[in-house]
Structure formats: C-alpha cells, structure tokens
Amino acid sequence: MKPARLLLTACTLSLSLSLVAASVMAAVSPEEAAKLGTSLTPIGAEKAGNADGSIPAWTGGLKADAAPVQNGFMGNPYASEKPLFIITAATAEQYKDKLTPGQQALFKRYPDTYKMPVYKTQRSAVLPQTAYDAAKKSAVTTEAVNDGYSLKNFNDIHYFAFPIPKNGLEVVWNHLTRYRGHSYINSQVQATPQVNGSFTPVQIEIASGFPWLMSDAKPKDINNILFFAKQTVTSPARMAGNVTLIHETLDQVAEPRMAWAYNAGQRRVRRAPQVAYDGPGTAADGLRTADNADMYNGAPDRYDWKLVGKKEIYIPYNSYKLQSPSLKYTDVIQPGHINQDLTRYELHRVWEVVGTLKSGSRHIYAKRHMFFDEDTWTAVEIDHYDGRGQLWRVSEGHTFTDYVQKLTAFAGIGTYDLMAGRYVVSNLGNENKQGINYAYQPSVNDFTPAALRNAGIR
After folding, report:
1. Using DSSP, how many helices (H) and how many strands (E) does the chain show?
2. One-character DSSP codes across 248-294
3. Cα distances (angstroms) measured from residue 342 to each of 101, 202, 331
4. Rounded distance, CA 143 to CA 148, Å?
5. What's CA 455's distance to the chain center, in Å?
6. Which among 93, 208, 387, 441 is most buried, taking Cβ atoms within 10 Å?
C-alpha cells in the first residue's frame, strides 16, 4: 500500500503545482523587458514605423510647447493639416480591412452623414519619466493571479501592469492601469440626444484622486485602491445634487468595487452596488452601462479575453479640434452621431481583443470586440454584441495628447445604439471656463461616505 500512497501523493502534488502555475501568470524576463525603450517604446509599443511608412516611428511624442494653451485647453499642433482623404459610406468598402465592424456598421446606419476624415499619422503620445520607469519595473515584477483577474506585486507600481502582454486579459489590464496623471477635478457634459438631435446637457463634476499621492493616506488606502472618484451632477436642476462615490479596487475578486450614492431629493447616502458591470450609466437614459464609462472600466472577471493580435486600423486620434473651447455643444451634438466634421482619424497599430461572456456570468453584452491604441494602451474602439450575437452598440473614444501634463485624455466618447438610432456622448468640456484642473490636491477624507452628503448642492 505504501507505494500506491506515495504515487497518489506525488500525483496530487503535481496536480497542485500545475494548478498554481495555471493561476499565476509570470512577469517577463529581464532580457525581454530590456526591449522597453529600445526596440519598443518605454510602455511597450513598436517603436519603428510600418513597412510602407504610413505609420512613422515613435520619436518621443509632443513637446510641452507644441502649441499655445488657452485656459487649460490644448492648442492644436496640427491645425494646418488637411485630411488625406475622407471615408464615406460610398467608399467604406475599399477601406474595410482598416475599419472595425462597428465603424462599418455606422456607415451603413448613417450613410448620408457618418464620415471619417483621415489625416497623416502623428505619434504624439508622451508620458512622464515616472510612468516609463513604472512600466519597466512592472514588466519584470507584476504577476496576474486568480486566473488573471487579480494583480500581484503591483501595489507600489501603479501604472501599466503588463507593458509586454502575452494574452488578451493583460492588454485589458494595461487600459485599466494606464497613466492618468495627477489627481484632478473636471467638469464634463454628457448628452443623450433624441433621434431628431434635441438634447439636454447634463453637467457632471468629476473629482478623481490617487491615494499614493495623498499625504494623509494610510496603508489600507494604498494597498488595494486604484483610485477614488466622485461624480456630482450640477445641472439640470432636476438632477442637480446627486452624487456618486467610487473606491475603485485593484483586486476586485477579493474586494469588489465600493460605491455609494447620495440622492439629493431623499438626502440619504446609500451603498450603490449597481454602479458596476451592466448597471445603468449615470444620467445616460439607458444608452450605456456603468462599465461603458472611460470606454471600459471595472472588474474584467465576467469575460474570457482572447488576444486576436495586432492590426492597423483608422482610429480617432489627436482630437484637438473636437476639444476646442471655440465650439458650442450644439456644434458637436447632432442627430445619430457627433459632428464628424470635427473628428480626426489616423492609421495606427492597435491590439485587438475579444471578450466573451463566461458561462454562468451575467451581462447585457455577450461579447465585446475591443481595440487598444498601442502607444497609450487606451481603448479607442469597442463593439458590443447582444445575447443573439448581433452588433448592438459601438463606442468611439476621441483622444488627444495633453502635452503639458504628458498624458492621454478624451475629447469625447460616443456610444452609439444601432438599434435605437440614438447615442450618448460624454467627456465634453468645450463650454467650460477652463480645462481639466490638475492642481487639485484632495485628501482621503474628501472621498469618504461621510463627506458624500456635503458634496450635494440641493
């Protein structure tokens, strides 16, 4: 009996070790990490251009004086450039190999108005050295555990969990952990136009804080908090004073996102578990989910993520025209989709990832087809499919480089419901008196449930 017992013990040990290996995704080797800053950019993009030169090499991105800054709004370094060509419904077929399924669907849904002005590719992305250093450290240190849905050895790194990703989930993690700058406060407008284009702007003040930058933060505030966020609706009057507070956790398997809501009418603070996954988005008229914000946010554990690979497609980029303070919201918001004359698309390499809803998990999106800009790790195009396998919603994130703060921001995010013929557009700030305020220096106490009621204005 002893040999049999020994054999059973050895088999059990072997199985246990294999299960541990399967649940831990190792960091890359120092030799592979050495590519960062050499053949790869400091955060993992291909530094070289493409074969035909239509995508140039990355040479460091925009300088801090790239264009004049007006009240925090970035000037347009490429204002003198004209489109190389404009893709319309009539010509979309010849470009389809460089278009996402969602973009192709928008051409079919709005054949008379949806267009894509394509400009010369400018690899403008730039980050501070601290972010580059973090990516270098993370490459050899960070590990994915719990089937990849949690991060190990990342608490003191903060940015770019997997700059040299090996699978789709690691690409998603890079979007979730990308560099966002210092704590900030910003006023944004969101709108859900009717089919005829009429809309009521919803003004939302967003305060975001990173605990590792706060002097009063304690170890418990830093160990598993990715960021704090507080959203206060300031108009229209019927919504004003409603506030949502989020503690975004890094390991949402062990500790799910914590959220609270203050209802101005009831004058009560309550836990808000619905502010996650496919819970309704704030003031979105049912046109987006909670995890549609920021293109995609939250715990990735309800999907299996497949890395399709890299490809070259036309994506929104250098959207300085769209974020211009010379525009009114009525200039941007039109029936069916935003004013495409104000957009700019460029040919860039992207990481293509498909998220398929796991068996036994619940979400209104059965599949998410996602495209991430290689130079910033920002999700810029996402197609959402319903349970029948039909393309339902298409999200486009119009990014630009803040060359003063050295980060990538959104000039606007549009999520288009192909079936309803309506959309929600967020992250607009054209009519604000100033751009994003990065001088904001909050404390941990500003992001507690006790402070939530004080943020209400009614």
Report:
1. 8, 17
2. EES-TTTSPPEEEEEETTTTEEEE-TTSSTTSBPTT-TTSSBGGGTT
3. 22, 21, 9
4. 8
5. 26
6. 208
Residue 141's H or E segment, with its range, is helix 129-141
Write out the two tokens for 322.
Answer: 């769209």
Q: Which two tokens stand for residue 372?
A: 């991430």
Q: How many other C-beta atoms are found inside a 10 Å radius of the C-beta of residue 357?
A: 18
Which residue do the tokens 């493409």 mark?
A: 50
CA distance 357 to 305: 9
Q: Where are the domains of the chain?
A: 85-455
Per-residue pLDDT at 205: 94
What's 85-455's CATH class?
Answer: mainly beta
- C-alpha 278/C-alpha 123 separation (Å) is 34
- The pLDDT assigned to 456 comes to 57
Phi, psi (degrees; rounded to nearest 5) at 440: -60, 130
Report DSSP state, residue 94: G
303: number of Cβ within 10 Å:
24
* Cis amide leading into 42 (omega within 30): no
Provide, rounded to the nearest whole percent, the portion of the chain with pLDDT above 90: 85
* Run of H or E including 424: strand 422-428
Could you report the per-residue pLDDT of 74-132, keeping only the tens digit for each? 999 999 999 999 999 999 999 999 999 999 999 999 999 999 999 999 999 999 999 99
Query: 237: buried, middle or exposed (CB in 10 Å: 19+, 13-18, 0-12)?
Result: exposed
Q: Phi and psi for 429 in degrees, rounded to 5?
A: -145, 20
| Residue 431 predicted with pLDDT over 80 | yes
Using CA atoms, how far residue 309 sits from 124, 174, 281, in Å, is 23, 15, 30
In this prediction, residue 455 has a pLDDT band, given cuts at 50, 70 and 90, of: low
Half-sphere exposure of 431 (CA within 13 A, CB side): 11
On the question of pLDDT at 163 being above 90, the answer is yes
Using CA atoms, how far apart are residues 410 and 79, in angstroms rounded to an integer? Answer: 18
Residue type, 429: G
The neighbour count for residue 110, using CB atoms within 10 Å, is 18
* Nearest 10 degrees: Cα torsion 427, 428, 431, 433: 30
| 410 vs 413: CA distance, rounded Å | 7
Which residues, in sequence order, are bridge partners of residue 338?
Answer: 333
